[in-house]
Structure formats: C-alpha cells, structure tokens
Amino acid sequence: MKIVHLLSGGLDSGVALAHWLSLSHEVRILSINYGQRHFRELESARALCEHFHLDFVEVNLEALKTLMRQNSQTGSFDVPEGHYTEDSMKMTVVPNRNMMMLSVAMSHAIDLKYDAVSFAAHGGDHTIYPDCRPEFIQAMNQVAKVCDWHPLEILAPFQDFTKSQIVKRGAELDFPFHLTWSCYKGLEKHCGKCGTCVERKEAFELSKLTDPTEYL
C-alpha cells in the first residue's frame, strides 16, 4: 500500500512508522504543528525521518491554538503530573485534534492518489480520548471512502495495543526509541513527571526493556 502516515515524533507514531516500513509499504510522512506546547516533538519527527531516509513534511496549523485554550497542550492550563486520572487526562484533550490532522492527511493522500492514511491511536487512549476510540476510527474510515472520488482507508495499527505492547513491537523492529519524544511539558529533556512520561516509563518496565530516555 501507499500510506500517508501522521508522525508526531512520539513513541507510538514512530513505532507505527517502523511497522509499516517492515511490511514493505510505501510511506510518506506528515507532521503537524498545531501550536502544541511540546512542539519539541517535531524535532524528533524530523530525526526519525532522517533515520529512515524519508522526506520530512511539516504543516503549520499553529493559529488553531487561538481557538482551543481550555487544555494544557494549546492553552494556559498546567500539564498534570503523575498517573492520569479521568479528570487530569481530560485536561490534555485538544478538541477534535485527530479529526483535524486526519483531514489534512486525507487531502494530501487524495492529491497523491495514495491508498490510506495512518495514525497511532492505541488501546490505552480509548477511555478518555474520544478521537482514539474504535468508533471514531470506524467513522473516519467511512468518511474517507466518500469524501472524494478517490476513496481512502484509515489505518490505526495499534488501536488494540497497550503502550507496553507497542514498546515490544518496537524492540522487535530494533526501533530507535531514543529519537522519540513523549513529554507534554516541552522542556529540553523529558520531565519524568507528567502523565505521558509516567506512561512511557511504565511501558518499558512492563516490557522488561531498558528505557533509553533521559529524564530530568
């Protein structure tokens, strides 16, 4: 298949990229700046593209953050620390983020006459993030088939995976975990305290693999 893959620079989307390449699919990368506090992740997306010898394409949608202020990623709320609870995790929700990014990727894929668009929603996100649920993926898949004369498929290879299972898949592929970025605080190093850092640490622990991440 020919796939446009949304690459954030994080662990999940990075391993998904390696997964598709291991299956000999043709992959084109799209990374999106939507005004996220942790725009540092885009540097990791670029580094991953260099590692896999792919072109890095970044779309600037930074102005969108002026419309989405009531969260910790594009607004002024503090990034919650520790294990995510339902309330703290909701603070990290950027409204309709995946639909916006998928729409841009779909337009690009249609223009290229590619077969599919991929993103790295995973099973651990289902309970809180509405745009990571299987229902959302199925609905977007239906939209992708009728939004243009050129039908597309929406792929989410890790929708039933836990974070630790994604880490294990990455290890199978000899994936360069050290090039990825997870922290939501956007500092020079991973803070080690925010929910995504805690999840990252635990995923390596549960997988019984060494975490190469440098934490503050």
What does this structure look like?
- The chain is an alpha/beta fold and 216 residues long.
- It has a single domain, classed as 3-Layer(aba) Sandwich (Rossmann fold).
- Helices cover 38% and strands 10% of the residues.
- The chain has 7 helices and 5 strands, in the order βαβαβααβαβαα.
- The chain has a 5-stranded parallel β-sheet with strand order 3-2-1-4-5, with helices on both faces.
- Helix 1 crosses helix 6 and helix 6 packs across helix 7.
- It is globular and about 50 Å long.
- The mean pLDDT is 90.
Give a quick precis of the structure.
By secondary structure, this protein is an alpha/beta fold. It is built from seven helices and five strands, in the order βαβαβααβαβαα.
Q: Kindly state the percentage of residues in helix.
A: 25-40%
In this structure, how is the largest beta sheet organized?
A: 5 strands, parallel
Q: Mean of the pLDDT scores?
A: 90
- Strand neighbour order, sheet with most strands: 3-2-1-4-5
| Beginning-to-end CA distance, first to last residue | 41 Å
Task: Work out the radius of gyration.
Answer: 16 Å
Write out key terms for the chains shown.
216 residues; five-stranded parallel sheet; alpha/beta; single chain; Rossmann fold
